[in-house]
Structure of ATPase family AAA domain-containing protein:
Amino acid sequence: MGHGAKFDQNAIINKMSDVFALRRSRGANEQKENELKQKDISLATKLYKQLSHHQTACMNLTREQNFFDNPKSLLQPIRGILLEGPPGTGKTMIAKAIANECKCSFLNVKRELLQHSLLGESEKAMAALFQVARAMQPSIIFIDEIDTLFRSRSESMHEVSSRVLGIVLSQIEGLETNNSERITVIAATNHYSSLDPAISRRLPLKLHVPLERLDILKKLLKEEKFDFSKVDFDKIVSSTNQFSGADLKELCKMALHNPIVESTDQKTEPRPLRTEDFTSNVNSIKPINKELQQEQMLRNFWNSVNK
């Protein structure tokens, strides 16, 4: 698009609404239900602490500092972020929170429409996405479950996905050579090992998003009128390494039933909950994320990747 060309932002957004979920994170018409602040996401605090070591990721979007004016400098903006973690950890919400924090446009790619059956349509759609991102910058392009689109070459990758991957790689490479563009690609994956190494290299900032079980437990039990003074939540957390939010909810339900079942007099208050009410039921629940390794192993891995 030439510098003199007139850009009708609303027209393009409306035209492409069947391909991309586009949302402006700034302006008077911002929908309140889409506002995502750091305090609204239990994982965001820890994630922002990790991002604080990589402030250039956000500085490129906000342009609070002019650190990136010299194209020959070793200090260059981060163009790609990869969020890895099990399902249900809020990776999409975190990406939206970053966009909101930086007052960026948020372009959420609909994965199924990038796997178009007509020859060349998926590549055109991805190229158009980056064109819209440039017109709406500062902007964040979010690709969820990126491993399902761009699998490792050692595994089977659909021919269309392979062509789209080429477009994405060339577009990100173009961003890396043009410091004036305020665009960041954020991708999310549940299976890092399945991701094509080429796209992984273009997403240099890798952040592990764990299941924050302590926060989830406290939120689940917040409205319950039981005495929790004898409950060792840290012990429960350590015994539920691979539990998702849904698993923890089931565990809490089972634990809450114990004092009621044991109570013989309906007029008296149930006894206080004990740690054993939870831990004794752990083996009764088959974790949804059974294929995941222990979280400590994941943390060690991601720490080594980001050194």
Observations:
- Strands lie at 20-24, 80-84, 105-109, 139-143, 183-189, 205-208.
